[in-house]
Design goal:
The protein contains 6 helices and no strands. The protein is mainly alpha-helical. The chain is elongated.
């Protein structure tokens, strides 16, 4: 019996020593209104002393709420509008290039037409100069021969007018002369008939 009791005491002493070495504080009941209990002693170091927690606290520094609200909207607008803007810019560039090419072609065509017009004007001026030289030579020959000089450059020159109106009153004169011959009293008066015919025609 004595041996059993001594063994029990020794075991109890060992248990007390183990409890002292662990240093686990006893649990405390909840306070009033459901507040958490306050630990008096804790072997766990405070959160602020941990390097991992400090790194996390430093990394979690976020910008203000206003900037956070504006950033996603700006980013979404840029990402949404950039393809459309690129397409519009490409279309504007293509249209500008086509317009420039069309204007270049028009300019080349106008230059070609201007060159042709200049050549035509030069040819006409040369022809006019040659015509003036020929007319001057002809006038000089007419003056040297003492003959009649007519300006061939004019449409209403006398020779052409006479040729055009030479037979204007020929038929009228013949009809008037026949009418005078039918008059019995004037059958022998040729001079009188000529004077009357001249006065009627003129």
């Amino acid at each position: 019996m004595k041996n059993y009791s001594s063994t029990t005491l020794v075991d109890n002493n060992n248990d007390d020593e183990l409890e002292d070495n662990d240093q686990i504080p006893p649990l405390q009941p909840l306070g009033v209104n459901g507040r958490n209990r306050i630990l008096t002693k804790s072997p766990i170091p405070p959160l602020s002393s941990s390097p991992v927690v400090q790194h996390q606290q430093q990394a979690v520094n976020l910008p203000p709420a206003a900037s956070l609200q504006s950033l996603p909207t700006t980013t979404s607008n840029v990402t949404d509008s950039s393809p459309t803007e690129n397409v519009q810019q490409q279309q504007i560039t293509n249209s500008d290039y086509d317009e420039k090419e069309r204007l270049k072609n028009d300019l080349i065509q106008l230059k070609t037409e201007l060159q042709k017009s200049k050549e035509t004007i030069a040819r006409l001026q040369k022809s006019e100069e040659q015509m003036r030289e020929r007319l001057a030579e002809q006038a000089q020959r007419q003056l040297e021969k003492g003959g009649k000089f007519e300006d061939l450059n004019q449409v209403s020159r006398p020779t052409e007018l006479i040729r055009s109106y030479s037979s204007l009153y020929s038929q009228a004169r013949i009809d008037a002369l026949d009418a005078l011959d039918n008059i019995r009293e004037m059958s022998d008066a040729d001079d009188l008939k000529s004077k009357l015919l001249f006065s009627v025609v003129v």
